[in-house]
Sequence to fold (562 residues):
Amino acid sequence: MATEHQHGRSAGAGLVVGGDRPLTDVAAGAVAAAGRSPTVHLGSAESLTQSGPFDLAVYLPAARNGGDEVPEPEDATRVLEILAGWPACHVVLVSSAAVYQPSHHHQGHLSEERLIPRRNANPIAGRWLDLETEAARHLGDGRLTVLRPTFVPLAGGRDYASRLFTGRLAVKPLGYDPSLQILSPDDLAQAVRLAVEQRPAGVYNVAPDGVVPLNRALRLAGCRRLPLPRWLQRLGRSLFGRLGGVASLDQSEYIRYSWTVSAARMRRELGFVPRDSSAAALSALRRGGSPAGAPEAEPEYDPFGLDKRYIDFWGKVLHRFVHDYYWRIELDGIENIPRQGAGVMVGVHRGFMPYDGVMTMHALARERRRFVRFLIHPTLTKFPFLSNFMTKVGGILACAENADWVLQRGGLVAVFPEGIRGAFSYYRDAYRLRRFGRGEFVQMALRNRAPILPFVTVGSAEIFPILAKIRWAWWKRFSEWPCLPITPTFPLIPVPLPTKWHTRYLEPMPVHESYPPEAAEDAPTVRAISLEVEGRIRQAIEEMRQRRRWIFWGSIFKEQQG
Fold:
């Protein structure tokens, strides 16, 4: 199918420059499918001058040291200089979605413009970005297409994904089960073919439809899991190097947090339609083939990690116990939460731990069969086990794109507009509302034609009543909390107090019926609606506190009904 180091340019030919044979063969097949005769070059940059010129080149940077690292900068620069020196040459650079930093700040399904700031960047992400920047500098005159594929594991591949999913033993971070996107070789070939045929100038993510959790991905690939904490991975790396699948910590970050991108631009502009799901790509890898479609009976996984079976399991055990017996939570007005359709729930978060959100999630799943998505602070997905728990019960990082994604699919989004400052209020100010920010929750509701659903919980502020705060710089960097709170039990005995809770779901506010979607951009309207919501919540809190006689027992709602 290909020859190496051919001289001159033949009619209808295309050059494929690569360093990893399995991936280069995929690209060569794509060039052939586009009706061109592929010429493969696996030699040094210097010998590349003897292979051209060509009017089309696909460049797959060679992995350095057999990992997910881009080539030596000097070699990549020389290759790009040579390709740029061919005036009629259009270059398809097969970069990597690794350019998006793996981090607990990764919001999920990032578009091409949403690169995470490079402060404290993962070195691998930084090197991929440097490569793209260098390519744009040499070919920024409309002759460059950049493709950013997600994981593409291949039999015989030397990259991290291939070694991870084709080995017998896979080392993974302990306490994490993130959502991943696994791209099949056939879908990567389709993306390269479309880029070769259409030659667009721009950057495109290449990803499959759907995700697969890491633990399930390893099972589909036939790998045994070895969960290790980071310190033990670091020790194993120093003792055994890359033996036994012990990757560098920079590489393992890509399976520590959910790391997903959106391929909407490529679908829209180039007509890219993935054939294989993530699960199908892994199953095909295990069987050594690439059958179309998802594996039989393989479930569709939530893109952000929500797991209804996980929620139901804990709802029958732990969550039921703490809801019904430990905090003895009473509900009022839960019928105000619709059984279907979009809605923006707006509440007040106290107690600095996310227990009130978890209990609201449990109540709605049990009583209304609704699975609410709470917009959460990144610190809740930073640490092992907590990260796994928060994503599986429906937590998604707080941003407008994530909220829109849920609402446009008829889901419920829950917001605490006071943010992290409200959660860390002194107990003396626990029921004093702070400003509701800039009204983002109102914009979400208006933009997506959804009602606002206010709700109030009284009692959660007392589980960890904050009596003092320690401003500790190290703690702020480590935890991303604004302070180290001091309560009667925290941090010495981090057990929440068994207070009595009451949660009231207020009357819905169908703002979408009174205002058009364009009102989301009208600051006075947004501010007026936000103040009205804030006023209703404040009034409900005051009424409930007046009726409450004791913190640890008593019923507000039964007395009211009586």
In short: The longest strand covers residues 452-458. The mean pLDDT is 89.
